[in-house]
């Protein structure tokens, strides 16, 4: 998509040309002008700020292997209980994504899969929708087809489960991931059938949304006469489920179009993963205590490309701070891979992984320096896998350090 097809002011064209020169080393053949404009718009046409945003996102995609996320085998429970789907296309050819949000049982999912699985599932869905939108733009010849229309149905929304800290942490982390890595893919978001408590929930997450996202959000109470005409301004009725005022139904007459849209629902308790079963029996776990004011640091060396740093842990009765830092051996430049923050690992098991760079040392930190009174008991497995061609091999940490600090010191991942 060239600049000729984009309606840009002269200063915006100059910003685009400058931005392209600055990031030419990381661009791929499919990264056209429209792709670059997304990042510029997200940073108010500041090429330097857009460059930082794009480079940070490229690092994120490398860590999560996002380019291959379509190949990730999504757990069946996420396929069955994650509410979303495409009902059709708006008048410009953009996908219409329907999200019956009340069917998102975050409590049940977090007791059945890991947080990392939910993040990967969200990335997989976004990447799939972006590819679908890209194919639409080639058919329509309209770059606006690359954006989404999203309809959030908040009917029967239950705020209670989102007051639970692990649930709110997941939602906020997903919003942050979206804002940092998927700018300007949203054309318009209709949040419909909102109950009174929604205002409280929205105010909690609004501060994590960029202005360019907030400006595209339209919020409606449970009044179909208000929200349906607004949606129909952009979308024809035959592209919407009959349940939402359109004319679509499944072949059996189902107005919810459940053959296209997963409505989620309550995750059965028999699908919950028990505390013991949730831990991979193929991993070796270490159980220890981190004294009040203390920290546990694990250090790994990465010599070869294709290695992953993986972790899985839980604490007993109390939370802990967790973070990962990467240090380049030659330049001594450090990068925070996982920001040091408190995690509710006493409520939900923590697990995740990052892609490692050769010639770097990785420092994994469990930090209890903020606790004046409580010693934390932890059970963990942290390992660096060998390159994929050396299957079944793992590398143990080269050093394990236990430190004691004053809670007032407030240790950070940069220490």
TrEMBL record:
Task: List residues of the GOLD domain.
Answer: 276-384
Tell me the InterPro entries matching this sequence. Answer: CRAL-TRIO_dom, CRAL-TRIO_dom_sf, CRAL/TRIO_N_dom, CRAL/TRIO_N_dom_sf, GOLD_dom, GOLD_dom_sf, SEC14/CRAL-TRIO_domain
Source organism, top-level taxon:
Eukaryota
SUPFAM superfamilies this protein is in? CRAL/TRIO domain, CRAL/TRIO N-terminal domain, Supernatant protein factor (SPF), C-terminal domain
* Gene Ontology cellular component terms for the protein in this record: cytoplasm
- Residue span, CRAL-TRIO domain: 74-252
PANTHER family, alphabetized:
SEC14 RELATED PROTEIN, SEC14-LIKE PROTEIN 2
Q: From the Swiss-Prot or TrEMBL record, give the protein name.
A: CRAL-TRIO domain-containing protein
